[in-house]
Amino acid sequence: MGARRTPPGDARFALLGASDVDAAARVANSTIPPSPEAPAESVDGRLARLRARIERARATDQSGAWVAREDGEVVGLALALRSDGVWVLSLLAVSPAAQSGGLGRGLLQRSLTHADGCRGALIASSSDPRAIRVYAGAGFDLRPAMAASGPVDRAAIPAGLDALVRAAGPGDAVGTEPVDAAVRGGTRAAHIVQLLDVPDTRLYLAGRAGEERGYAIGREGRVIAVAATDEAAAQALLWRLLADARGTAMAERITGGQDWAIEVLLRAGLAVGPDGPVFTRGRLGTLRPFLPSGAYL
Ligand SMILES: CC(C)(COP(=O)(O)OP(=O)(O)OC[C@H]1O[C@@H](n2cnc3c(N)ncnc32)[C@H](O)[C@@H]1OP(=O)(O)O)[C@@H](O)C(=O)NCCC(=O)NCCS
């Protein structure tokens, strides 16, 4: 299915400039509910984090960052990032009052110009029917997904995880690269370092240094991402994240074929239900075992 185009040179759309950052953060804050993986924070705290995220995307991926305006006001934004030949949609939002007017489709098309020359592309979609139309219309394949949440049955946590999985820091992010090359089809150690900037976020690695079999990122039982080259490593990593839960544990974007994850999450006592789909395009890795993150996939 070919992408339908809004007219080129449409004055409603522009690259996101330095002076748009505040307004774009306000649009994102009022349009997208905080992700369950996000840290608990005040509105001011969330706005500051969104501003920093938008600034960073603008600095590293300028041609992926776009705004849509109505009557001169920013009412929508798209942020796309690329790393090692893989493009990801990090954020797409149109203010409620401006929705259903073609801005979302136009923003996605423009952020996809940043995918030129990339092998593959990934999107973590919301369940919004408009988002699903926009991504499918741009030639992406839909992978239905589930999410899991609930308290962890601590008695179910297997013994001996420490022999399989080690805690790591930003300096070890290079250990994720061979895993991501195989699983995602492209590396993104710099994005992992950014994820670890948020307090209480942990990185775990499976396998010996230099021979990593997988990695996992989470925050207090909220699974941010897991990728591995074999299911045994992926399951140990997922259990390690769940063992960090203080209250509700959560995993999202569990696509078909990730039965290794469903098995662990059900054994841990979490409830499994539907989630927004993941969309893929082009040449990626095995995508298995893989739980992609929301903002960096
Ligand atoms: C999803 C979102 C970005 C889409 O942007 P938008 O400007 O509202 O959508 P558009 O007007 O571009 O419409 C997109 C498609 O949905 C269709 N559409 C419009 N209103 C619709 C509705 N109420 N129900 C179903 N489809 C609808 C449009 O016809 C269009 O399809 P087409 O290109 O095949 O004609 C926007 O609605 C939004 O911010 N939603 C909340 C946050 C969110 O879910 N963001 C996506 C995160 S992955």
From TrEMBL:
Coiled coil: none annotated. Keywords: Transferase. InterPro entries: Acyl_CoA_acyltransferase, GNAT_dom. Residues 11-164 form the N-acetyltransferase domain. GO terms for molecular function: acyltransferase activity, transferring groups other than amino-acyl groups. Gene3D superfamilies: 3.40.630.30. Pfam families: Acetyltransf_1 (PF00583). This is GCN5-related N-acetyltransferase.
